[in-house]
Design brief:
The protein is an alpha/beta fold. The radius of gyration is 17 Å and the shape is globular. Helix 5 runs parallel beside helix 7 and helix 7 (about 140-155) packs parallel to helix 8 (about 185-200). Helix 8 (about 185-200) links the parallel strand 6 and strand 7. Strands 1-2-3-4-5-6-7-8 form an eight-stranded parallel beta barrel, surrounded by five helices. The protein is built from ten helices and eight strands. The chain binds 1,3-dihydroxyacetonephosphate. 1,3-dihydroxyacetonephosphate (13P) binds near residues 10, 97, 214, 232 and 233.
């Protein structure tokens, strides 16, 4: 039997609720449910209820948020909690996306608190990790990814979160939005390292997604890596036909 592949779309700061509605009107017509495919969208939080409603009845499509705060409620202007996201129908949350880390100063310690908060609220955490171009040139890519994974490994060691409800996305920062993709070999090599680290905490089965300039033209070759279980797509997930083509990649 073929393995289940994950196709995730991170819309970043694109699409108001009405735009999300028109996207799904077209996208859901193009993509039929398939047992070996799981699709997850991360719209802006304001469009989550619309996306949830548009995809109700499609168990192959899940909706998540891009960001949560680790507290449940309180004086944290501008933030949303995992519980609120769950109550709005979200089923997953990105955590530690490179834009959160590099543009908004999210720390490794904060990603640990968010992993636990997401899990407690019943959201599937998708931890994003990845090195910058300077870190890669300095031969520090593996070390950086290991440091960013540590909060997750820690949670798994202590059974703080469920092994069966978590994913990791490897997104080299230099490949995000640049049109420059990691070669399939580079992606597979880092995924194999991440897999080995997860194996040490009995979590080798956690799905590993690759992200960074994934397009309809390169999705199949990236997914050919044996440790690449899916893709996390930014720009090319904004257009129904291009994301539908990616979701058909095998
Ligand atoms: P692009 O696909 O636009 O490079 O973005 C990748 C990404 O950051 C997904 O989270």
């Amino acid at each position: 039997m073929s393995r289940t592949l994950v196709f995730a779309g991170n819309w970043k700061m694109h699409k108001a609720p009405a735009d999300a509605r028109s996207f799904f009107d077209e996208f859901l017509g193009r993509i039929a449910p398939a047992g070996d495919r799981r699709i997850i969208f991360f719209p802006p939080a304001l469009a989550v209820p619309t996306a949830v409603e548009a995809c109700s009845g499609r168990s192959d499509v899940e909706i998540g948020v891009q960001h949560i705060h680790w507290e449940e409620l309180g004086a944290f202007t501008g933030e949303i909690s995992a519980g609120m996201a769950r109550a709005a129908g979200a089923q997953a949350s990105l955590i530690g996306h490179s834009e959160r880390r590099h543009l908004f100063g999210e720390t490794v310690g904060e990603t640990g608190k968010k992993l636990q908060a997401a899990s407690r609220a019943g959201l599937l955490p998708v931890l994003c990790v990845g090195e910058t171009i300077d870190e890669r040139r300095a031969d520090r890519a593996e070390q950086v990814v290991r440091e960013q994974l540590e909060p997750l490994l820690d949670c798994l060691r202590g059974n703080g979160i469920s092994r069966d409800r978590v994913m990791v996305a490897y997104e080299p920062v230099w490949a995000i939005g640049t049109g420059e993709t990691a070669s399939p070999d580079d992606a597979q090599e880092m995924h194999a390292r991440i897999r080995a680290l997860l194996d040490e905490v009995d979590a080798a089965h956690v799905p590993l997604l690759y992200g960074g300039s994934v397009k309809p033209e390169n999705a199949s070759v990236l997914l050919s890596g044996e440790d690449v279980d899916g893709v996390l797509v930014g720009g090319a997930s904004l257009e129904p036909s291009s994301f539908a083509r990616i979701c058909d990649a095998r």
